[in-house]
Amino acid sequence: MLASPIRARLSLRLLLVALLAICCSSVVAAQASAAQTSPALRKASKAYKVADRAVVSAAKKTKACERRKGAKSRACAKQRGALQKAGTRLARAQRNLAKLGRRAKTAAATVAAPTITVSGTTLKWNAVGSTNSYVFVTKVLGTADKYSVVSGTSITPPAVPGKTVRYSVRASVNGSAWAKEVSVTYPSTPTTPTEPTTPTNPTTPTNPTTPTTPSVDTKAAPALSTSGNTVRWNKVGDVGTYVFVSKVPGAADQYSAVSGTSTTPAVVPGKTVRYSVRTAVEGSSWAPEVSITYPADSTTPTNPTTPTNPTNPTTPTNPTTPPTSNGSFSMGLVAGSALTYEYDFIKNLGAKTARLEFTIGTSASSMRSTIDLYARNGIRPLLLASFYGRIPSSSEAQNLGTWAKEFGPNGTFWQGKSYPTSVRPTEIEFGNETSYSYQFSDTYGKGGFGQIASYQQRAKDYAVRAKEAAQSIKAANTGIGLIAIGEPSGAGSYWVNNMFAAVPDLGSYVSGWTIHPYGPDWQTRLDQTIQYTEARGSPKLPLYITEWGLATDNGRCLDDNYGYDKCMTYSSAASTLRSTINNMKSRYGSRLREFYLYQAHDQRASGATSGREHYFGALKDNNTAKGDYTNEVKSLLAAN
Q1: pLDDT band, very low/low/confident/very high, at 35 (cuts 50, 70, 90)
Q2: Sign of the C-alpha dihedral computed for residues 263, 269, 275 and 279 taken in this order
Q3: Which domains does the chain carry?
């Protein structure tokens, strides 16, 4: 029998040998796994490429037939049917590929993640093991994540103009880890891909109206916008045929081939329809979707559960009466609480109107110096009467009559002053976001807060006080009006219905509705304000967007951005602001009276925090410019 120390040494050696064998076998297994591409992914990727090729072919055949036979010719029904089937197969193939591509998100990672580097618009990464196949994901706000299988270790994705696009990659084997995301911000108009290996000739003149050069990225996503019921996009290179998709809730997606850069889809009453478009080029990207909300019809409100009261004898207004305004549109800035301090920022940006907040009980005499500072420098105040987390008293509501008497057109404040009439306030805003839940402890954070009795009572009390304030204002000065909160703020029709339950003719007292439609769903919120108020007999009053904005620290990721890209660059913010205002003006015409950008400047230095609320400024906190975004704000303020 061996001595105990000898037995112990042998046991230890055997254990080490066993552990080494296990380790080596794991490494071999991992290497073997890395060398083996998932058969399911290979099959899904091939199916997607076949479907993509079929869509492009079907679109070109459809458009060729329509050019010969006519755009609406029945002789092209076969080609249109083939395009519809091809589009449906493509969408199904992409969903299947995405399902397989996402699996690694929940699986335990046993294969190392690649490291991505960005060079221009080209992405490169290191090889993982001996595999040459990778799963690549493209993430664009407003579209579903797009997955593809890439051979090799680099790719130049199609551009998505005006967007910041996030990318990641992993080896196409089970258990592989995703790389840390990188992002590329594309200019608002498509350009030639910036692959560094492609030489350029700076001496060759270019013609921007004839983009026929083969170096243009014809796979780039067009930039979509809406104008009324028309959907428009930019021309991409020399592409003449585009694939257009309409997505109606509850119905199959509809695909069509379009020549040119616009189309007016068929109206779908009572529905919000989403649209996208891509070039008829294999491998091209779909544009981020836009949407159009169509009214149910010309006489019926779009919400069948919203009660109407067309026969109420106490409603003296005609819902078809147009607003009495001249239809002019103005854009201004929201000032912070320190109004004297805010002035320099607002003046720097060139604003001609600014939203100035005073608590509702403030005396007119104590407001004079602030009003004078802004007015003598050419800035018209929008007077916000605030009452955070409560409903004002009757005497406070009537106090607004003293504001009107002094500061409204022909008011006592202007006597003896040579200031232009354009700087005299014409509206007093009654409260800030009182229809929201966050100001009140009984509704904050609860689902369905519109059904809570205290919330409904608050809407009724608000309407009563708004009526009293409007009466007091009109008695003091007929040149200034009261604008009231018409935004549902997530409560459905409860806010508006309860206001009108308390004051059925409220629409005859106020001169407009205020809304704060932050985020890309602004159209839904504005449409709801119109729908709910007019269903209760209100006239078609003007709309006042007294707050809307974008949080941006030039690509640095923040904690939120109301549904927009949390890592938005200044350039992207500029294009988003421009397109949003243009689309709002196009959709609502003369009803859109005023738009106030929140806010003049950032609240913290760049990079100081990740808090969304600190970076809504048109300027940095030190009164310096935020690049393209500041330039765009100044341009829009000057034009409006």
Answers
A1: very low
A2: negative
A3: 39-185 (2.60.40.10), 224-293 (2.60.40.10), 330-639 (3.20.20.80)
